[in-house]
């Protein structure tokens, strides 16, 4: 029984996703003890790599997605099932900072596919959960997915492909904006379709996904490559003024939404 | 990055509520145990029930809402061990946090 992690990384004009993937892969190796397969394209490959991936799969990326006036290459996540060489896979976003072995617990769950349905923001723990639209579902998160090579998992990824290819149709039905393709939204719909239009409790990772949100930055407390202690700082706007607030965290995995903060973190 | 200087220069204030919420979340996760075909939380309620039951085998509803037959003593021992280790660490980190007041 083989286990490993899969990352997708396609450089955009604004961000170097390949170097983000190298940073994340090193931490996956260190904290989870798993090999990492990278799915990328020829143009993202650096001349001097910083990390030796277990496998590199070169694909032709779909660049037909624009976010904040820049190309955002996030389509094609459904290919993870076919390209993963492992029997059991953890599929992660490249901006997920692994600081513990917690994700290994997902392999022990009695399911062949699971993802997060609840998030918490590190400096805003009671923030409301995201929904597709006012009359639709609570969003599932494609940031962390564990899947095993089974017929059902394959079906879920096929549904993900189908939703991606008919995204406008689903956006019309569920009243969300189709302009920017979101893997989270596609997953929310695909998992329900594959499950006969319901959500199974066992498909949900039984802890929350922690975000470092938009007005928040994470700083490593030491220069150690595998540092697990961070200062998280938040710009709290009050009466037209910014009040800086912070907390210290350790041994906790988190997802960085603020890409500038993530780039600072990997360059420290 | 010298984060201590960063905090001083930014005149940042420590946010106790967010820190408490982070600690709770972190340690609640560690209380989760996959054992004997079910998913369990090492909480007071489950531990008390397992301690009070008399039979070797009991049927419990796990976190996925499935009824699972378990060996009572084995599960009790695993949950007690997890509970005591995790709560000790949580208490220690919480005590350090309280000193920041």
Distance between the termini of chain A: 37 Å
Instruction: State the separation between the terminal residues of chain B, measured CA to CA.
Output: 25 Å
> What's the helix count of chain A?
7
Strand order of the largest sheet of chain A: 3-2-1-6-10-8
Q: Which class do the helix and strand fractions of chain B yield?
A: alpha+beta
Work out the helix count of chain B.
Answer: 4
What number of structural domains do the residues of chain B give?
Answer: 1
Low-confidence stretches of chain B: none
Proportion in helices of chain A: 25-40%
CATH homolog superfamily of the largest domain in chain A = Spore Coat Polysaccharide Biosynthesis Protein SpsA, Chain A
Query: Could you name the ranges of chain A where pLDDT drops below 50 across 5 or more consecutive residues?
Result: none
| CATH architecture tag of the largest domain in chain A | Alpha-Beta Complex
Characterization of this structure:
Chain A folds into two domains: 3-209, Alpha-Beta Complex (Spore Coat Polysaccharide Biosynthesis Protein SpsA, Chain A), CATH 3.90.550.10; 212-267, no CATH class. In chain A, helix 4 (151-165) packs across helix 6 (183-194). Chain A has seven helices and 15 strands. In chain A, the strands form four sheets. In chain A, strands 3-2-1-6-10-8 form a six-stranded mixed sheet. Helix content of chain A is 25%, strand content 28%. With 101 residues, chain B is α+β, with helices and mostly antiparallel strands. In chain B, strand 2 (32-35) and strand 3 (38-41) form a beta hairpin. The model of chain B has no long low-confidence stretch (mean pLDDT 93). At the A-B interface, strand 13 and strand 14 of A face helix 1, strand 1 and helix 2 of B.
């Amino acid at each position: 029984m083989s286990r490993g992690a899969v990352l997708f990384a396609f450089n955009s004009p604004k961000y170097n996703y390949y170097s983000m993937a190298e940073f994340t892969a090193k931490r996956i190796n260190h904290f989870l003890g798993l090999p990492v397969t990278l799915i990328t394209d020829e143009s993202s490959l650096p001349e001097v790599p910083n990390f030796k991936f277990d496998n590199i799969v070169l694909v032709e990326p779909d660049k037909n997605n624009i976010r904040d006036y820049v190309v955002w290459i996030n389509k094609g996540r459904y290919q993870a099932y076919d390209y993963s060489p492992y029997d059991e896979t953890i599929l992660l976003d490249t901006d997920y900072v692994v600081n513990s072995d917690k994700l290994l617990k997902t392999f022990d769950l009695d399911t062949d596919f699971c993802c997060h349905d609840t998030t918490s923001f590190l400096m805003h723990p009671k923030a409301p959960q995201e929904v597709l639209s006012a009359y639709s579902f609570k969003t599932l998160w494609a940031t962390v997915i564990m899947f095993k090579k089974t017929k059902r998992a394959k079906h879920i990824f096929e549904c993900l492909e189908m939703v991606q290819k008919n995204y406008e149709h689903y956006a019309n039905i569920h009243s969300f904006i189709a302009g920017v393709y979101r893997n989270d939204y596609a997953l929310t719909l695909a998992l329900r379709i594959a499950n006969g239009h319901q959500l199974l409790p066992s498909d949900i990772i039984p802890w929350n996904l922690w975000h470092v949100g938009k007005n928040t930055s994470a700083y490593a407390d030491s220069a150690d490559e595998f540092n697990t202690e961070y200062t998280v700082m938040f710009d709290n706007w009050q009466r037209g003024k910014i009040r800086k607030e912070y907390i210290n965290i350790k041994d906790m995995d988190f997802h960085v939404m603020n890409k500038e903060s993530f780039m600072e973190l990997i360059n420290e | 990055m010298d984060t201590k200087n960063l905090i001083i220069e930014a005149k940042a204030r420590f946010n106790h509520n967010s820190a408490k919420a982070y600690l709770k979340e972190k340690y609640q996760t560690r209380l989760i145990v996959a054992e004997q075909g079910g998913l369990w939380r090492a909480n007071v309620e489950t531990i008390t029930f397992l301690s009070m039951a008399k039979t070797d085998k009991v049927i419990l509803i796990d976190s996925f809402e499935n009824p699972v037959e378990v060996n009572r003593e084995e599960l009790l021992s695993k949950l007690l061990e997890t509970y005591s280790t995790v709560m000790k660490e949580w208490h220690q980190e919480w005590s350090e946090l309280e000193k920041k007041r």
